[in-house]
C-alpha cells in the first residue's frame, strides 16, 4: 500500500527566522501575504529577504486578495515566487494570466457549485478551502464544518484544508478528511504576524494522531 504524506503550508510568514524554522521542520510551502489590511502583510523587501533563504523544495507562495495585475507583476518581478494563491473573487482568467502555477482559495459554504468551480479554475493546481466569514477574506482562526468538503468525485484536484487549524486539531482534521494538504496561520502564532517556534514544532509533531 502506498501512503502519502500530508503536505503542509505555513502561511503569513513575516520573519526570516520563522521561514528558516519552517524549512527545518520539513514544511512544504510558506505563504507571503500581499494584502496590506492583514497584520501578516509583507513588503516587497521583506518578502524578497524571506523567500531568498528558502532551500530547494520549499515552495514560496505569494498570496493576494483581488489584486490588480500590476501588483502581481511587481511581486513576480522582484521576489522569487514559485506559486500564486488567490484568496478573493478572482476569475480563472485573471488567475491564469501570469503564467505561473496558482491555487485558488474557496470560502467554504455547504452548497458550493463544484462543477462550475472545476470549470472556472480548470488549471488551478489545488483548491484551498477556508472558513467563510463576511468581511474577513482569510486568516479567520476559525474552523468550518469539514463535512462540507467536496468528494473526490466532485473535485479531482488536490484539496488544501485551512481555517482554524492548530496543533490540537490538525491530526483529527487529517484523519477525518484525508486531504492532500493543510494550511495554517493563526494557530502557529505567538501574536498576530509573529510565529511561535513552539507552536510550529507542535503542529508538525501532531500531524498524525
Ligand atoms: O492570513 C491573513 O491575514 C489573510 C488575510 C487575507 C486573506 C488571506 C489570509 N490568509 C490566508 C491563509 O492562507 C491562511 O493560512 C488561512 O486563511 C488560514 O488562516 P488561519 O485560520 O489563521 O489558520
UniProtKB/TrEMBL annotation:
Known catalytic reactions: N-(5-phospho-beta-D-ribosyl)anthranilate = 1-(2-carboxyphenylamino)-1-deoxy-D-ribulose 5-phosphate
Molecular function as annotated in GO: phosphoribosylanthranilate isomerase activity
Record EC number: 5.3.1.24
InterPro entries: Aldolase_TIM (IPR013785), PRAI_dom (IPR001240), RibuloseP-bd_barrel (IPR011060), TrpF_fam (IPR044643)
Pfam families associated with the record: PRAI
Domain N-(5'phosphoribosyl) anthranilate isomerase (PRAI), residue spans: 9-205
Gene3D superfamilies: Aldolase class I (3.20.20.70)
Keywords from the UniProt entry: Amino-acid biosynthesis, Aromatic amino acid biosynthesis, Isomerase, Tryptophan biosynthesis
Coiled-coil region: none
Pathways per UniProt: Amino-acid biosynthesis; L-tryptophan biosynthesis; L-tryptophan from chorismate: step 3/5
Keyword Lyase applies: no
One biological process term in Gene Ontology: L-tryptophan biosynthetic process
PANTHER family the record matches: N-(5'-PHOSPHORIBOSYL)ANTHRANILATE ISOMERASE
Family membership: Belongs to the TrpF family.
Protein name: N-(5'-phosphoribosyl)anthranilate isomerase
Organism: Thiomicrospira cyclica (strain DSM 14477 / JCM 11371 / ALM1) (Thioalkalimicrobium cyclicum)
Amino acid at each position: 500500500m502506498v501512503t502519502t504524506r500530508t503536505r503542509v503550508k505555513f502561511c503569513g510568514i513575516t520573519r526570516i527566522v520563522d521561514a528558516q524554522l519552517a524549512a527545518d521542520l520539513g514544511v512544504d510551502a510558506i505563504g507571503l501575504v500581499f494584502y496590506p489590511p492583514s497584520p501578516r502583510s509583507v513588503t516587497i523587501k521583506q518578502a524578497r529577504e524571506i523567500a531568498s533563504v528558502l532551500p530547494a523544495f520549499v515552495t514560496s507562495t505569494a498570496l493576494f486578495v483581488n489584486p490588480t495585475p500590476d501588483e502581481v507583476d511587481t511581486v513576480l518581478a522582484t521576489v522569487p515566487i514559485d506559486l500564486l494563491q488567490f484568496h478573493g473573487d478572482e476569475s480563472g482568467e485573471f488567475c491564469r494570466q501570469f503564467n505561473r502555477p496558482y491555487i485558488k482559495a474557496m470560502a467554504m459554504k455547504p452548497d458550493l457549485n463544484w462543477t462550475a468551480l472545476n470549470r472556472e479554475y480548470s488549471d488551478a493546481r489545488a483548491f484551498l478551502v477556508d472558513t467563510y466569514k463576511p468581511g474577513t477574506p482569510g486568516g479567520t482562526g476559525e474552523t468550518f464544518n469539514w463535512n462540507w468538503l467536496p468528494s473526490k468525485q466532485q473535485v479531482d484536484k488536490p484539496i488544501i484544508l485551512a481555517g482554524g487549524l492548530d496543533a490540537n486539531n490538525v491530526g483529527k482534521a487529517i484523519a477525518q478528511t484525508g486531504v492532500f494538504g493543510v494550511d495554517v496561520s493563526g494557530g502557529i502564532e505567538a501574536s498576530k504576524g509573529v510565529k511561535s517556534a513552539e507552536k510550529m514544532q507542535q503542529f508538525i509533531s501532531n500531524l498524525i494522531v
